[in-house]
Amino acid sequence: MPPGHHHAEYIQSAVTGNAAAKSALVASWSRSMRLYGLDPDQGALPNVLTDAELRQARERLGSLIATAQTTLDRLYSAVGSAGCCILLADKDGVPVDRRGCVADDATFCKIGLWTGAVWSEEREGTNGIGTALAEQRALTIHRDQHFRSRNTALSCTVAPVFDHEGRLIAAIDVSSARSDLTEDFVKLISMAVVDAARRLEAENFRLSFPTARIVVASGGRFDAGHERHANALLAVDEDDLVIGASRSARHLLDLNDDAFRRPLPASDLLGQHRSARHDYETAERGVIQRTLAQTDGNVSAAAAILGISRATLHRKLKAFGVS
Question: What CATH code is assigned to 276-320?
Fold first, then answer.
């Protein structure tokens, strides 16, 4: 793509041609120009929230920012020394937390890659944070793929983050302004960013169901444009009923919010169809074995805890084949 002031001309040509129907990037350029009425050559920096507005944005994310700290630190330790900054942005495209080398802070602050700046696609056109949120998928916007001419020195790799109910809640961004950033290193960054987003989702999911058992749902299906369902998590209560499912699990098992209006047996969802009697016997056997373990195999003590006679417990042990 031609550099400098020709960037706007190139975008105009691409948008008015037939490339928008074939290219997700040009479709984003088209939204930027036609839907949002933006100008590629407009040179002002991104809008920045006031301190009070930024504080409110952080409060809306609740505990997610605290949950993300370890993930962001780990990601920064992997790519920070290469001149990258790390941003956690909310669903409106506003970075609410950041990691970066002090030596690079002035550069990134001047560009606007800072907490409180508004990087939504509606305000800034095609960019890593805004477009990843708009399209709800991981992507890289590399240099002159940006809509604004002033952002064409940036390479931004972003993955969206979904909450415990599968709703878009945030995004993790790794951005660099280095001119020597190679394509191979960008691919490594992409893998690291996606991994970080999935780790954050999994940790947030577990914390959202603190008393539940977390089960990984397995399956061989794929969704077009989505990663394999490695993060398909179910929250199962003490009655073996599913009370929560991650976005990936919802895709895998065709679940929506309406599905949770009635009890969802985990065994049915996971394809482990059994009779009610079998489930009852399995549960009873498990209770007896756990009680025996607590009493170091003392049948009399276990019977007392269970509220049954020693003879009854012996009969159940024989029936279940438990020695």
Answer: 1.10.10
